[in-house]
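testing teh design pipeline on a random one, pls ignore if ur not involved
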């Protein structure tokens, strides 16, 4: 079974990856507090602000809703078979000794 990674292992992996990035010539840019990653200065698809549009109202299409309801009701028209009461059937039960070895089999009516 594979051992799950601890937080210390994850921190060490992140630290090694950061050091490797910096050794290969990468630079870290400080981002001022309060700047969101969802807002890009260039605009475009990623520059779209989230949840600023007014809530859209939904319009029901009565014909579609009626067709769905009719289809659902037609599937429910089948009458289910009446459930018969289950009488207790005798079952074979194995009796074991203290060491887990089977001793005998008996019929149990539970």
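output:
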């Amino acid at each position: 079974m594979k051992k799950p990674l601890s937080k210390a292992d994850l921190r060490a992996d992140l630290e090694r990856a950061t050091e490797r990035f910096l050794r290969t010539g990468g630079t870290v840019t400080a981002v001022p507090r309060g700047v969101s990653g969802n807002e890009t200065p260039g605009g475009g698809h990623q520059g779209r602000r989230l949840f600023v549009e007014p809530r859209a109202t939904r319009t029901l299409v009565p014909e579609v809703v009626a067709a769905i309801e009719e289809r659902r009701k037609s599937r429910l028209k089948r009458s289910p078979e009446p459930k018969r009461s289950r009488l207790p059937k005798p079952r074979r039960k194995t009796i074991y000794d203290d060491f887990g070895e089977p001793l005998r089999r008996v019929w149990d009516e539970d």
